Amino acid sequence: MAAKNDTAGLDKGAREPIVITSNHMEAEELGNKVTFTGNVTLKKESMTLTSDRMIVLYDEGSKDIREIDAHGNVVVHKEGRVALSNDASYYSRDEKIVLTGDARIIENENQLAGEKITLFIHDDRSLVEGGKALLFKDKEGKSVDLTKRK
């Protein structure tokens, strides 16, 4: 059975539209909520976010995207960095993504993990809450776990 591709290109205030593709799409609540399932991919500028399921919530008045919630095997790729988590929420107005559930960022050989990681899309920065570990390679190529240092 061939998978159907559904696309939503929205968010009028952005420089580029948000494009979401998936195997299945279902609109609810008079178009205020759209659920994407199966091989879900969101693309916006230089960022790609994939997950098992994605729910897009629209502002009732303006019909602009208010929030996008991603669930299951969330992966965010942006300019050489990869962020992974169980769940993520994209907030259109603030241009940020909040990762929860085994959240971590990988850049080159460096890894950072926390209970909650906020990615600020246009500021190229991250905020980690409840940090668990920061791993990096020292000059000799050995891994160093900063959580075990005194």
Task: Describe the structure in your own words.
It is a single chain. The protein has strands at 6-10, 18-22, 24-28, 33-44, 47-58, 65-78, 81-91, 96-107, 110-120, 125-129, 133-137, 143-145. It is globular and about 50 Å long. The protein is mainly beta and 150 residues long. Residues 1-14 and 144-150 have low confidence and may be disordered. It contains no helices and 12 strands. The protein has a single domain (6-148), classed as Lipopolysaccharide (LPS) transport protein A like domain (lipopolysaccharide transport protein A fold), CATH 2.60.450.
Task: Provide a quick synopsis of the model.
Helix content is about 0%, strand content about 65%. The chain is mainly β and about 150 residues long. It has a single domain (about 5-150), classed as Sandwich (lipopolysaccharide transport protein A fold), CATH 2.60.450.
Give the key terms.
lipopolysaccharide transport protein A fold; disordered N terminus; disordered C terminus; 150 residues; mainly beta
Mean pLDDT: 82
Number of strand segments: 12
Major pleated sheet: 12 strands, antiparallel
What's the CATH superfamily, by name?
Lipopolysaccharide (LPS) transport protein A like domain
Name the overall outline.
Answer: globular
The share of residues in extended strands comes to: over 45%
Number of helices in the DSSP assignment: 0
- The structure class reads mainly beta
The portion of residues assigned to helices is under 10%
Radius of gyration: 17 Å
Layout of SSEs?
Elements: E1 6-10, E2 18-22, E3 24-28, E4 33-44, E5 47-58, E6 65-78, E7 81-91, E8 96-107, E9 110-120, E10 125-129, E11 133-137, E12 143-145
Antiparallel strand pairs: 1-2, 2-4, 3-4, 4-5, 5-6, 6-7, 7-8, 8-9, 9-10, 9-11, 11-12
